[in-house]
Design a protein that fits this description.
Strand content: 5-15%
CATH architecture: 3-Layer(aba) Sandwich
Number of domains: 1
Structural class: alpha/beta
Radius of gyration: 31 Å
Number of strands: 8
Order of helices and strands: EHHEHHHHEHEHEEHEHEHHH
Largest sheet: 8 strands, parallel
Bound molecules: 2-acetamido-2-deoxy-beta-D-glucopyranose, zinc ion
CATH class: Alpha Beta
CATH topology: Arginase, Chain A
Mean pLDDT: 91
Strand order of the largest sheet: 2-1-3-8-7-4-5-6
Length: 414
């Protein structure tokens, strides 16, 4: 059984807004070109895309929002601009509704192929991305939440009990968090550039202490990166000391990856330093879960060079090739370890693999020392020094300072 690549090649032009310069059609063409050049595309099964249906989209989004997006192909440019302005950092083009349906549909085709055993795993190369979009709002280049829809679809159509969503994009997929924060059947893990809430989308709820709500408490795991420049060791540490133990305990039936590569080196958004080969390892580590049923869906990734390399690393690993020896493992940095400890402590009450988290720091280290020696309480406790000529009070015994003390009396003083 081979891996699959769902390629959504439909290109379109965003409104000429400066922020649209990074989420460009070339992201897909260079990725595909790299897969062809490296011979990986030949080893994959290509799966045709379909449009997501209204029913698919309504698994996550509201009817009002879907109806509003449906009107965008018929809007004048002026109306489109106005429509766009009510959301954050998203740019509507007359063609985007069509493309967004294809992007979500591609993710669903991939889920179908994996769940029916046609392929073992796969990657959907799609635009627009999805993880920022919310029930009733577009956000951050995202129109429909491709991965959130895929999770609900897998549960509904295939009776999947537990879905793990791993979001290794450098942005917080707040749309995914909102969709599942009270749902214990979907474990959402996201690491993201945060910088103490200074980085987009600047949400308080992207921090480590948003652990899920109600029945879903413990099933939302946020790892904030409070510094840029994170490296391979930082990423691997989070996987090894947090995500994997929890994921094993969760025991998912399906793994979905919000596969954004703006977390790779050279990306103008992420400004991180992890190299493309790290995605071979991250992918490989996740392939042990859910019997290998893994669907990666492209999210961000704006450095065309590192994007294409990272896509190839991921797909080659999905195809079963061993990962290359990891490079530059110098150990995690202080800031990454701080984040790791915060997340582990925040989740210690929800996961037995973390139940002793927080006890490993120096300050709380368990020390052993001997019992202090037993202390004997003396039979006589108080001495009163009295001037000459004063009568000794009742209950006291008088010794003159000049007389030699009888050893017998001294022994009674002890
Ligand atoms: C991508 O990264 C390379 C290498 O660091 C750099 O030369 C190039 O300018 C980057 N491109 C973008 C769009 O950031
Ligand atoms: Zn991103």
């Amino acid at each position: 059984i081979r891996s699959s690549v769902v390629l959504h090649t439909h290109t379109y032009i965003w409104l000429r807004h400066p922020a649209c310069k990074i989420e460009v059609p070339e992201r897909l063409t260079v990725s595909h070109e790299a897969l062809v050049q490296s011979g990986l595309a030949d080893r994959c099964v290509s799966i045709p895309v379909r449009e997501a249906t209204d029913a698919d989209i309504l698994l996550v989004h509201s009817e009002e929002y879907l109806e509003a997006v449906k009107k965008t192909p018929y809007m004048t440019l002026e109306d489109l601009k106005e429509f766009t302005l009510q959301y954050g950092d998203v740019y509507f083009h007359p063609n985007i509704y069509h493309c967004a349906k294809l992007a979500a549909g591609a993710a669903l085709q991939l889920v179908d192929s994996v769940m029916t055993g046609k392929v073992r795993n796969g990657m959907a190369l799609v635009r627009p991305p999805g993880h920022h979009s919310m029930r009733s709002a577009a956000s951050g280049f995202c129109v429909f939440n491709n991965v959130a829809i895929a999770a609900r679809y897998a549960k509904q159509k295939y009776g999947v009990k537990r879905v793990l969503i791993v979001d290794w994009d450098i942005h917080h997929g707040q749309g995914v968090q909102y969709s599942f924060e009270d749902d214990p059947s979907v474990l959402y893990f996201s690491w993201h550039r945060y910088e103490h809430q200074k980085f987009w989308p600047q949400l308080r709820e992207s921090d480590f202490d948003s652990v899920g709500k109600n029945k879903g408490v413990g099933f939302n795991i946020n790892v904030p990166w409070n510094k840029v420049g994170m490296q391979n060791s930082d990423y691997l540490s989070i996987f090894c000391h947090l995500l994997l133990p929890v994921a094993y305990e969760f025991n998912p039936d399906l793994v979905l990856v919000c596969a954004g590569f703006d977390s790779a080196i050279g990306d103008p958004e992420g400004e991180m330093c992890a190299t493309p080969d790290i995605f071979a390892h991250l992918t490989h580590l996740l392939m042990n879960l859910a019997g290998g049923k893994l669907c990666a869906v492209l999210e961000g990734g704006y450095n065309l060079t590192s994007l294409a390399q990272s896509v190839c690393q991921t797909v080659q690993t999905l195809l079963g090739d061993p990962a290359p020896p990891p490079a530059n493992l110098d150990g995690p940095c202080k800031s990454a370890l701080d984040s790791l400890h915060c997340v582990r402590s925040a989740h210690r009450q929800y996961w037995s693999c973390l139940k002793h988290a927080g006890e490993e720091g120096n300050s709380i280290e368990e020390k052993v020392w001997p019992e202090p020696p037993k202390r004997v309480t003396p039979t006589i406790r108080t001495a009163v020094v009295l001037p000459d000529g004063v009568t000794c009070p009742d209950g006291c015994k008088r010794f003159s300072s000049s007389e030699d003390l009888d050893p017998l009396i001294i022994s009674k003083l002890k």
